[in-house]
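[Q] Does anyone have a clean structure-token version of this?
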Amino acid sequence: MERLVFKPYTRAQVDFEIRDSIGDEGKNSETYVAHDPQIDATIVIKAVEKEKIEEDLYFAESQTMYRSSHPNVVPILYACQDENRIYIAMPYLENGSVKSLIAKRYLSVREIVSLACQVLSGLHNVHSKRLVHFDVKPDNMLLTARGEAVLSDFGLAKAMAANGAAEQDRFYFKNKPPEALQGGYEFGPTFDVYQFGLSLYRMCNGDESFYRQFGSFFDEEGGFNRDAFKFAVRNERFPDRSHFLEHIPERLRRICKKCLSSDPADRYQSAIEVSNELAMIDLSYMDWGYQELEGCRVWKKNVEGTEYEFTVQPDGVTEMTKSVNGGDARRVRQYCTQGMTNRQIRTALGEAS
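[A] Here you go.
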């Protein structure tokens, strides 16, 4: 009888066909849609250049992803290597990311709260494993086939020490919290809370507004004014806390602002705290959908068969109509005016039900 000889490692071949590149902001990696013939599946492959990371960190990201397994964290299928690269295989989520979603349209408050709580559930799991993610942004909030959000990309994640902080010196500049702009290298979960708040702001107001604000720090030649940007972040001027679309309720605005507090001690201290606050959002604002059409600003919602539409025309004239079960639209006179202030528009959106 032949005796089985155990080896320290068993090497086996993994094949996949690289197809399309997926654009992202990774400095040391590229991400691709690929086909794996072994399981006959479309997958995502993240390829990391070995020469750009230390050898003992080759599989640090894949190990962190495995440790962080959770319904709201993107799962890892496997990790492997060749002479030049480390490869991390993940499921292909064809619905894209929250970033791709907010690039197409504005979100209702219900969508914002739902997606935010799903991300926070994943982030709470990450923190409970004593990790700081360090790269929370809409690009890294992927959407499953069911439209649920999962947290991805653990390339910057680090383990916390006994003091509850992790060391990190690699950042994406526009997502840096104030404390990182002051030269610190040890950060706790409130770092992720700030970045979540920045993502929440973008979900509330759309990416066009966010990038327009960020673009103001570039001069005509494309030079970036780092000092002006740092000043604005430290003094809570970027992003503009006074700018929110009118259908964003006051509690959601306060949550966003608290996450973005310049002092980490003034922020929510955990992801679960943020989630609990989001659960208290006023229901009357939940289902307004917002869009901009031919210079008009238009909100629509359906409440148990009653369709509401509120329009602010370029000259400031406002009109609200409602129709029941597909019937003729009738004007709601109290909201049909020659002009409303921002606060009056917010009141109208909150009262209409």
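[Q] Thanks! Anything notable?
[A] Residues 48 and 125 are 25 Å apart (CA to CA).
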